[in-house]
Amino acid sequence: MIKNISNLGDAALYCDFGSEVNKEINSKVIRYFKSIQKENIDGINNLTPSYNKLIISFDLRKKNFQMIKKLIENLNITNDDELETNRIKIPVCCDENFSLDIKRLEEKLKITRDKIYEKFFGKEFFCYMTGFIAGMPFLGDLENELQAKRLETPRVKVPKGSVGLTEQFANVYTFESPGGWNIIGNTPQVIFDSTNENNPNLINPGDVVTFEQITKEQYYNNNE
Amino acid sequence: MNKNYFEIKRAGINTTFQDQGRGNLYHIGIPFSGAMDNRNFQISNKLVGNEVNFPIIEFAYQGPLLKYFGENINFAITGDVKFIIRKKKNTIEGKCYQSFALENGDELDIISTNKSVYGYLAVSGEFDVNYQWSSCSVNTKANIGANNGKKIEDGQKIYILNINKNLSDKKLNYINTKIENIRVIQGTNFDYFSDEGKKIFFEKEFVISKLSDRMGMRLEGPKIENIVDTNIKSEGLLKGVIQVPADGNPIIMLSDHGTIGGYPKIGVVISADYDKLVQLTPGSKIKFKKVELADAETLFKLYDLETQNLISQIL
After folding, report:
1. Does residue B173 belong to any structural domain of this protein?
2. DSSP state at residue B255
3. Which position among A82, A213, B41, B189 has the lowest Cβ density within 10 Å, counted as fewest Cβ atoms?
């Protein structure tokens, strides 16, 4: 299923699953990721699944590229039906103070904000990967009519909880960070909790996420 | 109540608790972190009789000024660092790679690193820190690790537990060497760059920019031309990966890097050269030298043996 395995530097395997971004390829990546994770292989010290790649880092004191490559090539991979999928609902408030880029989106997409919300809320999005900053989920796919480029000049500070759109993806800023996604609202839901060491991320690769619009009142009640 | 502590009179520029870092969290979005210069981190601990992976204080450029209260303790500083110990009656000029004693009321003034970035302070005891995912390493971006994931600040107190009562003087003869040639393995997007761009990468000098920190090192120099696409589909990063964004200036990922990135990877710094790379100050000139995987593996083995050898010389 892996199209090609090469080395990324001297302490990582670069597993290439293809060049397209779609659920099918990404599910393969996630299946490999979960299977390798389960094996608990001594010397492997990080796995980074992304849209269509899986990077496996190892401790060069214990293992080398050829050893890990052989292990991965001979691994039994979990079948489709064994993949766990959590369904998660994320409340989002689109009050003016939160929907920082809604006007920009109206102009770029040439549809009204109501239409944007209609096409966004209640739809199921698949979590391709998490990362960049801790716990940030990359969710897709947005309908064609919602696909916009990122901001020409990224914001220096995107507020924590911001829900952003770019191309076919949506994400949530798990804490304040620089960023260039089009912000349409904010969630009071905690997406990343570093004090929960066993399960810091609310959303994990393979999960299905639905956003639900809430009022300002509900937002602040939720925050209490 | 613990009675042994440092009072921070001046925190310094970027002073944090670090240890060996935390693994197996890239998929969550959390990088390794940990001491930038692993060799100097381990040696500092050994010089005060600790296990090599005990928490230490890492500082960059200007270090902290600490006033000590409590029973006698030893400390050691590694790197290339200027520091003094102010006692009641006299002032002692400090030396790296050597343990010194601190008594109640003494001040340790870590003035600055010389021609390097990071220095390490270890004490013959345990800093009273909290751990997340088995590591105290501070990641200020995600606020993970000791000290609520923040830099050490002016006025705060740092407590020390379990002071080793058998204080003995320790010393190591070692001088940090600098490197100008950074050895790299070709990256997975090497062919995104023009023949001229590839040539520039391996032949021309690059200057380390001031916009460098624990997350990344930015370089300036001749532009590296991309002939395929200035973006790739976002994918994992590692420390040492060299990305080239649209402006043609390379960025090297360092220990606190974002876990995912969307710029083409032209190369990866070999593991053997990482500790030396991070010590290069802004304005330093570097060149990249191409090596093959097998050579990189051998070079790391040698580097690691040398580190183990240095550690075993400290008795």
Report:
1. no
2. T
3. A82
Q: What average pLDDT does range B45-72 have in this prediction?
A: 97
Would you call B233 and A47 a contact, using CB atoms and an 8 Å cutoff? no
Q: Residue B186: how many CB atoms within 10 A of its CB?
A: 21
CB pairs under 8 A between A and B: 132
Å from B22 to nearest chain A CA? 9
List of chain A residues whose C-beta atoms are within 8 Å of the C-beta of residue B270: 9-10
CA A118, chain centre distance (Å): 22
Query: Residue A64: which of B141, B236, B297 has the nearest Cβ?
Result: B297
Say whether A8 and B28 touch across the interface (CB within 8 A).
Answer: no
User: Which of A4, A8, A10 to mutate to test binding with chain B, by most B CBs within 10 Å of its CB?
Assistant: A10
Å between A121 CA and nearest CA of chain B: 25
Contact check, Cβ <8 Å, A200/B141: no
What residues contact residue A67 under an 8 Å CB cut-off, 6+ apart? A43
Contact flag A132-B28 (C-beta cutoff 8 Å): no
CA dist., res. B100 & res. A11, Å (int):
37
Two tokens, residue A50? 């992304």
Query: Which residues of chain B are within 8 Å of residue A53 when distances are taken between CB atoms?
Result: 233, 235-236
| Strand arrangement, sheet containing B16-18 | B16-18, B56-60, B118-123, B73-78, B99-102
> A156 phi and psi, to 5 degrees?
-70, -35
Tell me which residue range forms the domain holding B254.
Answer: 181-312
Contacts of A138 in chain B (CB under 8 A): 234
- Residue at a domain's end among B116, B132, B161: B161
Its domain, for residue A72, covers 4-82
Residue B108, H or E segment: strand B107-113
* pTM of the predicted structure, to 2 decimals: 0.94
Q: How many residues does chain B have?
A: 315
Per-residue confidence (pLDDT) for residue A131, from 0 to 100: 94
Contact B29 A131 (CB under 8 A): yes
Domain boundary at A82, A117, A151, which? Answer: A82
pLDDT band of residue B2 (cuts 50, 70, 90) is low
pLDDT (average), residues B179-197? 97
Predicted pLDDT of residue A82:
64
Q: Of A29, A51, A82, which residue sits at a domain end?
A: A82
Query: Do residues A107 and A163 share a domain?
Result: yes
Is the CB of A10 less than 8 angstroms away from the CB of B293?
Answer: yes
Query: E strand or H helix at A119, and its extent?
Result: helix A113-120
A91 & A78 share domain: no
